[in-house]
Design brief:
alpha+beta; 7 helices; 28% helix; globular
Length: 173
């Protein structure tokens, strides 16, 4: 793993992070493109933060919280029902850079690299999928730079999202 990926640390989100996460989710740069992805978590955020298996992580740079990632089982999730290559071994992710002063600093690729490396430590996981809003070019570019491959539009047209995927073989290290 390269040094630029290693400096991003992912830690499980906990109750102490609730205020920061709520601030991030209403920040203009997040709300216009990403908030919808996290809407199911927002309604029960307090409960989610108390669940150690929720798959919600805070990304830190130099011990400072800068972003949020959610890792969850894609198989069986309604958003992924129409995607043929989603299996029991697939994980889906949603992510954001929440700290306003950290946007446009090329941290997305680094955060995604750290996240993918962590997810792929489990040998049972063979693919990560994600569906950023089709107009969210910063996220799409970061995903591609991390090794995600564009598979076209997400089958659920109501999402207005792209479908991207990465495997251990395509992940850029």
């Amino acid at each position: 793993m390269s040094a630029d990926v290693a400096d991003i640390v992912l830690r499980r989100a906990g109750p102490a992070d609730e205020g920061t996460i709520r601030r991030w989710l209403v920040a203009p740069h997040v709300a216009r493109r990403t908030h919808r992805l996290f809407s199911d978590i927002v309604e029960t955020l307090g409960e989610v933060l108390r669940d150690p298996d929720a798959g919600l992580f805070v990304a830190e740079l130099d011990a400072r919280p800068i972003g949020l990632v959610h890792v969850y089982r894609a198989h069986g999730d309604a958003r992924w029902a129409g995607v043929a290559d989603v299996t029991e071994r697939t994980r889906a992710i949603d992510f954001l850079i929440g700290a306003t002063d950290m946007v446009n600093k090329k941290l997305g690729r680094r955060m995604l690299g750290a996240l993918a490396a962590q997810v792929f430590r489990d040998p049972e996981i063979d693919r990560i999928v994600t569906c950023p809003h089709a107009d969210n070019w910063p996220a799409i570019i970061a995903l591609k730079r991390a090794g995600f491959r564009e598979k076209g539009r997400h089958p659920d047209q109501s999402l207005n999202a792209m479908y991207l995927t990465v495997t251990p073989a395509t992940l850029k290290k």
